[in-house]
Amino acid sequence: MGRRRRRTRWDWLNDPLTTRQESPRGVRSQLHSLKHAAKNDLISSELLPHFQSATGLADFTWRVYYDSRPTGRAQPLSDLLSRAEGYVIFMHGWDGSHAIWEDLPAQVCQANPRLVCFAADVNGFGGSPFIEADMPPLELCSPRADMQAVDLWLDLLRLHRPGRQRQVFTFVGHSMSGAALFHKATRGWAEDRYSLLALAPAMLHKDTVKQALYRTLGVGIGAGWQYEVLDRFKQLLVLQSMELLAAGASRAVKKEHDRIFQWTPKGTIAQTFFALGLAEEAPPARKWDNAFVILANRDRLVGLGPTLDLLEEMGMGSQHIQVVLGDHYFFSVSQSSRRLHTFNRAEVLRHILRLHDERRAGSR
What we know:
Blueprint: E1 18-21, E2 27-33, H1 34-39, H2 47-55, E3 61-67, H3 77-83, E4 86-91, H4 104-111, E5 115-120, H5 143-156, E6 168-174, H6 176-180, E7 194-199, H7 208-226, H8 231-246, H9 251-263, H10 266-278, E8 291-296, H11 304-314, E9 321-324, H12 338-362
Parallel strand pairs: 4-5, 4-6, 6-7, 7-8, 8-9
Antiparallel strand pairs: 1-2, 2-3, 3-5
């Protein structure tokens, strides 16, 4: 019997689910999942059961974006990952998937070819469903659980290696995952090795009106499907949710949200929304020198005043906060929102690159 091949750190790259060329020239992407990697012996056999037990997720799916020619010649993706300056981790919000970022990860790679971007499906959505998808435990649906699953995924893939980390991380989270960033694990993470960019973080701890809205919609969505009420009521819930969530977003983002809403078990839809309304665990008050928050003035899901009050209590100052003109999807451009959202999208890109450069300079 031949000797078993020694598994390497980057084996999971060898068999992507799909590969595609992105619109910026030279930028490519691959789609991967933990279940696929385990099935094809690309990761240790015990990693998937460990991840499932810890997170309640049946699988975890992500798309990795990279510039294939950062040195002017083609290189294996494993070399690009090993030699990258940093990794940018994109985490979508409620009822979304990695696709809601559109070409933003590819734009990051084009702007700095030595960055590799990862856009993950999180918290029961897209290619990362819960094991008990029809009614997942509420404690597994919270922003804290969202962040814990991402931290564990980075550890299992050995993208994060405490004490031996050369790359710096930039975490970009929207809405549900914007709130999740403030529950980022600090143990094993040197503060000068990562930064947080929270876009419209759904932190409702000081907003009792929004708490009630989230809880009511969560209960309504769950009850509507569980008890098979009239299709008209279901459709009204969909329309109301989408109008609150993505009114100014691009057509592609609205279409993706509608697809995810229709495809995702409604227990998952309801529990994750309800968990945001509970707002049980407020982020700690501490120095947030590695964090930046962008809020929008017409956001109907994240109240501007209460969120600013909470950020102040958390210890954040004006230098860490920006308010832009727009709605909950202030970084997604539609025909109606083009005048305001085009600038906002450029600002998000600018802050991603800025935060990376600052962390990298501070860690030298």
